[in-house]
Amino acid sequence: MPSSSNHHILSGLTNNLHDSDTEETQEWLESFEDLIETQGTARAQYIMRSLLQRAGAKSVGVPMVTTTDYVNTIPVDQEPEFPGDEEIERRYRAFLRWNAAVMVHRAQRPEIGVGGHISSYAGVATLYEVGLNHFFRGPDHPGGGDQVYWQGHSAPGNYARAYLEGRLTEEQLDGFRQEKTKAPNGLPSYPHPRNLPDFWQFPTVSMGLGPMNAIYQAQFNRYLHNRGIKDTSDQRVWAFLGDGEMDEPESRGLLQLAANDKLDNLTFVVNCNLQRLDGPVRGNGKIVQELEAFFRGAGWNVVKVLWGREWDALLEKDQDGELVRIMNETVDGDFQTYKAESGGFVRDHFFGKSPKTKELVADMTDDEIWELKRGAHDYQKVYAAYKAAVEHKGQPTVVLAQGIKGYGLGTHFEARNATHQMKKLTLEDLKTFRDHLRIPVSDEELESDLYGAPYYHPGKDSPEIKYMLERRRELGGFVPERRHEQPEIPLPSEAAYKSAKKGSGKQMAATTMAFVRILKDLLREKEFGKRIVPIVPDEARTFGMDSFFPTAKIYNPNGQNYLSVDRELMLAYKESPQGQILHAGINEAGSAAAFTAAGTAYATHGEPMVPVYIFYSMFGFQRTGDSFWAAADQMARGFIIGATAGRTTLTGEGLQHADGHSPLLAATNPAVIHYDPAYGYEIAHIVERGLEHMYGTGDEDHNVMYYLTVYNEPIQQPAEPEDVDVEGILKGIYLLKPAENDGPRAQLLASGVAVPWALEAQRLLAEDWGVSADVWSVTSWIELRRDGLAAERESFLNPGDGTRTPFVAQQLAGATGPIVAVSDFSSDLPDKIRQFVPNEFASLGADDFGFSDTRAGARRFFKIDSHSMVVRALEMLAKRGEIDWRAPGEAIEKYALLDVNAGTTGNAGGDA
Fold it and tell me: pTM, whole model, 2 decimals?
């Protein structure tokens, strides 16, 4: 009997209800059975739905059924005829499974030992092949190609197929997981577009991101279509996922978007082998039933593919439902064990649970019982499920396919807990696997070199290869395949940046507002503006972007079917199927996924789009750093805007909103170019350069993302100086204001919102202490560091060619005196450049958790305010003997530096 904790998996709809007339009940049941017998399951389904609908109208209490019996969703009589040659497909599927396993096995030579996963593809091969032979459309299909998110650990299967298709060589297969040592023939372990850019489209092995990104890719396909940019009506998104992966919060957390947007262009295929990496997914429960209820409750169409065709006759004979009852009550841990044992074990422990079910298999041999396949390994059942998915309208579909991890690899592999970590085959395993697949490889070939088992290719003129290639020709070309030639697009005119370079006049404006004004002007650019994709996670008004609502509008495929409460306002909330703004709600993970879909449209759709994702700074790289890493792998392009940046700028919000470290997190991503601009004119040059860098035609790496930290503290934005150092802005540092007095020399380096503090410190040093200090605006500590490290590496590898001076050292050449560097981030950020400048160097930073307080109080507490800069400069000059040694102490007393209430740096105001 099942444990009480599994009551939810029983087919007990009538439990706890009294049958007042058993004879009448039996008559109803017999009538229903006759309906199925004479008119089929489709008619029976309609009658049942009609009865349920009427019952609801009459207030008859009928429970919501989110979980159905543990059987296939599609009845046998509704299965379509399989259109392919199943025998020939089975033959080359055997070749694929052999080559995939041998590739991983060969990579386990003792002198290499780079690992790999043998069992994952063995279990998913049928799910892949039915799609590749009959459903997945290639990039040359008239309707455009499908986007397929492959299971990361099954990558050997994709390589094995590409080998049979003639796209990869044996030498490349032997370069698996040896990307540098076997270059140019190395292959990455998993789907990594950046490392194999002509092949992979989507990185999926950071589990949970694949499902999320697939949902937003499907949404973006519809977005492009509804906005009239590209006809994507004939394209589908497929995502292959593991049942263990579905425990990741990202895997399930965004299902509602797909349902709300009615994304019937999206199909999830969950490979339910009932195992995760180290054991069963739900040993005491049933993951398929759990997922069915979850997806159905989220508004998805659910198709279960649990049993192969060999079970059909048994289920047909199961007149009293005993077999279905046992299927319902058997927990996953037992189902896993059955496939690790034998046919006799299954007879005794599964069918033997009831005399009636044991009788069902009385005339079957143990071998025949063992050959009762799970649904994920049956071409006919999988084809029926996929066909139902693509024909279903109005909902996304999930196919829950039950299979076996390590299917066909032998008793050492099939369904074992350790299967995921097993990477090599014994000689006995190889022979058993060869025999099972009927691969024409001799014992002598296997025995001569355990790790030299040969790949098998029947020849390009064999019927199997001809059939395989013909199927792909009819479907529009190879999958996966990535085409990344970027079409040329007109970039914005100089007029788009003029207003930002004029400054704010007498008005005060934060850099967030300065950026939004630039964005507004870019949206007005006739040819370019339509390519911008503003992405906001429910903070548009905070960032001053509500002005976009009436014109750009918020994307909603369902339109706006309600009366907006602010409809009388000029900046009323406005939704539209043609809306340009992707407004994900309180959802940074979804916003990052939307950014990735938009930022890779140049490759996925041949349509360069420019995502501009603006968010609360703290909730970007801290919360969704893995998503940005995947975006970098996928070679996304676009702008990431960390608004309300800094540890002391968003003072009212407190610890979890006070960002003092995001640039440091972003610095670990090689594809992210970070800037911390102080003024609108700096932003204008950075945005202009970013668009040219990512979307221009220059001979440079376009696969980067520009990350700008901008602030909500209003300041007077200066106009761009006539002789502004544009190169310095773009490379990371320029002289903003040289000292106007003579005296002991110091250098003040600041970024972002800290630049006005440095200017104030410059004035105080001159007026109160006679010190001559230059102020430098550091627009990018990170880019300066990268340039410095590159210079060091060049010198390291080319010792005879002289030494290249890092850009920051070039800029500071002749700038004498100690350096005091400050930002509104932790001191680790300015410290990034310390090793590249000869001057004595001090970093001031907000090195602790944030808290709620005034800006002036917070800056005084962290000792990053103007007066702290003054005191630090005085201390360094006193140590050098250039000023009186008593000056620092006098300054501390004069400015009450130890009193947090005495701080004056900054001002109030700005949305939080």
Answer: 0.93
